[in-house]
Amino acid sequence: MKRGGRIDRARIIAEAAARISQELDAAAIMVSGDLSFEGIETGGIPVYYISMRPKSIIDHLVATGKEGKSPAKELSDQLNREASGNVDHLQHAAAIEYVLEGPKSGTIVGVVETRGSSSIIVHSLDENPLIKAMKECEERVRPEVMNAVLKIAFDIALTGREGKKIGAAFIVGDSEEVLKRSHQIILNPYEGHEEACRNVLDRKNWESIKEFAQLDGVFVIDETGIVHAAGRYLDVDGKNIEIEKGLGGRHVSAAAISRDTVAIAVTVSESGGVLRVYKDAKETICMESLQPATRYI
Ligand SMILES: Nc1ncnc2c1ncn2[C@@H]1O[C@H](COP(=O)(O)OP(=O)(O)OP(=O)(O)O)[C@@H](O)[C@H]1O
C-alpha cells in the first residue's frame, strides 16, 4: 500500500497483526509503541496499548559487541538480544494484564516497536513463565487472594505513597507458622478489628493496607485473605539464602520465611519498585512495575 508515494509500513504491520490474530483466534492484540489500529478490522479482538519497552533495555541492545567479532555475528547477536528483549517485555505486560482483569488464557499477538524495527510476536499465555509461577502460588493460596495481593503490590510499586516510593512485603498463607516466627515492631494496627475490615478481598480495605505499607515490617495474611498483622518483624535466619545481589533485609527475610513455612512472600522494593515473589526460598517472579495497558477496542 502506498500513501503519498511512501509505503505505509505501520499500516501493513497493523493489518498483518490483525490478520494473524483473527486466524489464530487470539485473546488480544498487545501493542508497545506508536502503531494505530484505527479503521483496522480485528474481528472483535481487543487491542491493548502496553507501556513502551524501558529505554534502558533498548540502550543495552545497541551497545556494540566485543572487538574481533565479525559484523555478521555482531548483527545476529544484536537481533537475538532484541528479539528476546521484545518477548520478555510482552511476557511482562501480558502477566500484568492477567492480574488486572486482562486475558486469562489463549494466544496474544504482540506488536513491539523499538527504534527502527517492528516485531510481531505470537505468545501463548499458557506458556507464560510469570503466569505459570502465579498459578503455582494459587495451589497454596486462594487465587482471588493471590490476585488481590498482587494488585495491591503493583499499585504500591507503581505509585508509592504521596509521591514517595515505598517498599513493602506481604507474607501470604501458613499464617500460624509465620506468626510464630515473627514479632511486632510496632503496635499491630489490625489487632482487635472485625474480619470484614481486614479482608484483602474487599477493595474498601486496600487504602488502609497501602497506608500501613509505609510502616516498617511485613504484613501477615492468611490463605483466605484476612490480614492478621502489619508492622511485623520476621525472626528468620537469612544465612544460605541466595537472592539477587544488592537486596537487603526485606528480601532476605521474605525468601527465608518462604523456606521455613509454606507461605508465599510478595515484596516490593523501595529502590526500584520491582515486584518479586518468593516460594520455597526461591524467587519465582520478578517484575518491573510497568504502567497498566489501556484498552483501545
Ligand atoms: N527481618 C525483617 N522482617 C521484617 N521486615 C524487615 C526485616 N528486615 C528488614 N525489614 C524491613 O525492610 C526495610 C528495608 O530494609 P533493607 O533496605 O535492608 O531491605 P531491602 O531488601 O534492600 O529492601 P528495599 O529494596 O525495599 O530497600 C526495613 O526498613 C524494614 O522495614
TrEMBL record:
User: Which residues does the UniProt record annotate as the domain DAC?
Assistant: 128-289
Which Pfam family, just one, is annotated for this protein? DacZ_A
InterPro entries associated with the record: DAC_DacZ (IPR014499), DacZ_A (IPR048546), DisA (IPR050338), DNA_integrity_DisA_N_sf (IPR036888), DNA_integrity_scan_DisA_N (IPR003390)
Its required cofactor(s), as named, are: Mn(2+)
Enumerate the transmembrane spans: none
EC number(s) per entry: 2.7.7.85
State the family named in the UniProt similarity comment for this chain: Belongs to the adenylate cyclase family. DacZ subfamily.
Write down what this protein is called.
Diadenylate cyclase
Provide the taxonomic classification.
Archaea, Methanobacteriati, Methanobacteriota, Stenosarchaea group, Methanomicrobia
